[in-house]
Amino acid sequence: MPAAATQSEPGADRGIALVSAGIDRSVQSTGAAAFDSVSPSVTGTEVDAPSAHDATTLHAAAYQSAIASGSTTASGSIAASASTTAGGNATEGGNATEGGNATVGGNATAAGNATAAGNATAAGNATSAGNATSAGNATSAGNATSAGNADNTTAFASASDDAAPVRQTVVTGTRTERYAEDVVVPTEVITRRDIERSGAKDLAELLETQPGLDFEYGNFTFGGVGLRLQGMNPEQVMVLVDGQRITGRIRGLIDLSRIPVRSIERIEIIKGPGSALYGADAMGGVVNIITRSRSRPQEASITALYGERNELDLRGDAGLQRGAFTVRAGAGRRSNSPYDLNTNDPATTGSGTGSTDVNLGATWAPSPNFQLRVDSDYLWRDLTGVDLLPTGAIFDRRERTELFNAGTSARGKLGTGTTLSGSVRYSVFKDQLLQDQRNSRQEDSFTTSIERLVDLNAQVDHQLPARNLLSAGVEEAIFSQRTARQGADTRYRTRSAVFVQDEWQVFEDATLTLLPGFRVDIDSQFGTEPSPRIAARWAPRPDTSLRVAYGWGFRAPSFQELYLLFENTGVGYLVQGNPKLKPERSRGATVAADHRFNDDVSVSLSVFRNDLENLIEVVTIAEPTPETPLTFGYRNVGHALTQGGEASARLRLWPGGYLDVGYALTDARNLDQQRALEGRSMHRISAQVSGRIRPAALDLSLRVAWNSPRTFYPNGITNDVTVKTDPFAVIDARVGKRFFSWGSAFVSVNNALGAGDATYLPLPPRQFYGGVTLELP
Question: Within 13 A of 188's CA, how many CA atoms are on the CB side?
Fold first, then answer.
């Protein structure tokens, strides 16, 4: 939980240190990048500092030495260089001793000596170029304002784990840059430091032990891992990458296990209705993946991992900046064998995987007021396994998916207080499924589907004189899908939208902020859908805040839910669509409170309720017979609700070491049938201990998530059979060791207790693996 700090006005012109021209992510501020990049597991790596487009910009080492909230570590030491050793002594650009004396290019700042309390003096942020003045750039609370240099000043980054929590910048909740503690809509952030310490290989592993999250595993036999928020289905959760919609759902899920974490800078999670800003598919919330950007003029890294089940993961990334141009590239190869939780038959439980991904992007930022970005990525992925029909027939199954994205975005300041941004993105997703019956060709099948998306949007943000930041935008999305599973015709859908939002700081001291917003979507199949939202934040004191939000959400049925006709001969089931489905709608409210007792202890509490109409559920339409397979279909549930609460706390155990604990209660019910919605855990407890043992240069992470029993209905719409699974716990652990300033090694174990079963919880079994990372200067 971010530390409370001096309140800042919304917008770049109100004192937020926004992303400089050198950062190639329009949603990323230098403060967030700097903090997240400085982690014990990447000692010696520079932070994401602004590029030197004017003569006043400091050396990157000076940015790394910026202290979150303006304060140094408990010992007062400042690392004034990008190459901080395990002992915390900087080398390049001036010698920083553990007593806190720092020089930058030989010119010591006026406040180079941190006080015993760790707070720099009023001139502590002054640079040789004079970007910071002595007129309050460091307040008594240690929070720099630097309002006059918002475009050229980094946000407050921590140079060590001992420092007070930084002011993390987020964008998802309002589609504008805001400090996490100031944003009206509650936003949870997983930083780069959290990602490094977790040891997770993909997004599914990273999120599985996070507080308040729930998952759907292996829809049918190989659908992957989908995320639930506030009891909502994965289909109702929007997943974004750098603010852009992800395509390629398989059987309704965005498979989180397909997304590697090496290229992720941070993850922002918004729970509750998000349709007022993002439209359809955001009923349950939004997950925004912010990718990593260049942190040095030139850099490269290589990671190699090997583990049980023939797990092999190789990944390389590189970045280069020359003047106003920045180029980034990365590639990875990952493979593993299938796994089987039931060895009594030849069928496998989980798919084997072979995937290759590449990405390439470039940014042109000729001035702090303009940025143009282009990027593209490609993912090729094979899923393999063995299926067994009730008749005894054995099928070798192979599914190949390919995903290509390409887009361009631009952002610029038009005079004082006005920012204009826009983007165009094209995506194509191809899914090919081969089912090959052993010793026979009678039931062999091969199907192909191609899904395309063209997404255009534009947004303007304008600062009004009366403490109002007005945001408005338009979007146009064109969807198409062609597959033999839905007939011979290509299906088309267009969705146009306009939204407006006003962030109003009611009082000058920013203790009360209101955020009304409204969006209208016009769907070519389902007509007009309004999505209003009202949110408010009250902060009676710097360390305490109360947030309230109420909004509407909707989700139009997918092409699959409407038209699918798919028979999996290998497993022996049929899925058919329902053209009579209606859009899902929700009305949701969230109340959240945060309090920071001190730099060592912080807590948060929240409650929520979502009332749903026309919830689309997968149901059993017909039981199998000797002539016909088990048949699934889709139908609207008349009324349903999800309600509950979450509590979490963070405790600093030692300098750089933390304990995070969380509890989530989720009551999700079908009100028409008066029964729990399928597959949810009502209770979930999570805990994580992570940190660095400095004398040994070790990074430690232990993550635990306990889930209460889940309810399933094998006979679908009838109530005659109810299955309750056993509770289960997932435990992951990692130990990493830093060698010199350019290399590290680690060993990890996932699912240490071996939780899972072949029918209702197809989790991968316990797995040990290890690897090395090399970071080249």
Answer: 25
Sheet containing 188-190, strands listed edge to edge, beginning at the edge strand earlier in sequence:
188-190, 264-271, 285-291, 237-241, 244-245
Structure tokens given for 718: 């009838």
Q: Which helix (H) or strand (E) holds 197?
A: helix 192-198
Residue 708: left if φ>0, alpha if ψ -120 to 50, beta else—which one?
Answer: beta
C-alpha 201, offset from chain centre? 14
**H or E element: which one contains 193?**
helix 192-198
Instruction: With beta carbons less than 8 A apart as the criterion, state whether 17 and 154 touch.
Output: yes
Answer whether 59's CB lies under 8 Å from 105's CB. Answer: yes
Q: How far apart are CA 581 and CA 377, in angstroms?
A: 34
Specify whether the CB–CB gap between 306 and 770 falls below 8 A: yes
| Rounded Cα distance, 205 and 769, in Å | 14
Q: Please list, residue by residue across 114-123, b when 16 or more beta carbons sit within 10 angstroms of its beta carbon and e when fewer do.
A: beeebbbbbb
Helix, strand, coil share of the chain (percent; to 5): 5, 50, 40
Structure tokens at 269: 């999670």
Q: What is the pLDDT of residues 344-398, one digit of tens each?
A: 889 898 899 999 999 999 999 999 999 999 999 999 999 999 988 777 888 899 9
What is each CA distance from 430 to 205, 247, 351, 401, 452, in whole angstroms?
A: 25, 10, 18, 5, 9
Instruction: Give the three-state DSSP class for 490.
Output: coil
pLDDT digits (tens, 9 = 90+) for 698-753: 999 999 999 999 998 877 655 668 899 999 999 999 999 998 888 999 999 999 99
3-state secondary structure of 37: helix
Closest CA to 45 of 394, 273, 327, 292: 292
Please list the residues that pair with 438 across neighbouring strands: none
Query: Going by DSSP bridges, is the β-strand pair 264-271/285-291 parallel, antiparallel, or unpaired?
Result: antiparallel
DSSP category for residue 47: P
**Domains in the chain with CATH codes:** 3-173 (no CATH), 192-278 (2.170.130.10)
